[in-house]
Amino acid sequence: MNSPLPLQGRSVQQAIVPIATQVMGGSDGVLTARPTVSIVDDDPHIRAMVAEELADSGCEVVALTNGQGLATRLAEGGIDLVFLDVQMPDCDGIECLRDLRSQGCTVPVVIFTSLNDPERRRQAQAAGADDYVLKHELLDRLPDLLERLLPRGSENRHL
Question: By C-alpha distance, which of 8, 101, 81, 7 is closest to 40?
Fold first, then answer.
């Protein structure tokens, strides 16, 4: 069966979300872009939970499993905010952030972790994190983080 939506290597959700974004208009009839937020975590349950909350908050979500995927996606542009896990099998989130900042990436990054470690918090701040949040607090803090860190009149930031 031929689909009316060409997937071109994308999942159904990735194909549908941009189309839904295109048809959303502001009250004055002008099309408005939703902010694009990336969630980077190796745990599929955490990714899904945070992605659902972000989508419910009006964001387009790019869910990724590792730092390499994040670097690639940031190089393409269009990401307004990143939530980056600290502990992932292929990379350390703080090292990933340090690398991104050294390449000139200005996208706001929130480091999130299950570790309440003052030294890791200090390292994240030194690496350029815009905030450091414990995973069990993330959903409660999400509205404030989005309000504070998403750019106004969103022009997506590039590397």
Answer: 81
DSSP string covering 28-83: TS-B-PPPEEEEE-S-HHHHHHHHHHHHHTT-EEEEESSHHHHHHHHHH--B-EEE
Instruction: For residues 143-151, give the mean pLDDT.
Output: 94
Rounded Cα gap, residues 79 and 116, in angstroms: 27
Specify the DSSP element, H or E, that contains 111: strand 109-113
pTM: 0.77
Show Cβ contacts of residue 27 under 8 Å, excluding neighbours closer than 6 positions. none
- Helix, strand or coil, per DSSP, at residue 99: helix
| Cβ neighbours of 122 (radius 10 Å) | 11
Whether pLDDT at 158 is above 80: no
- Per-residue pLDDT at 44 exceeds 80: yes
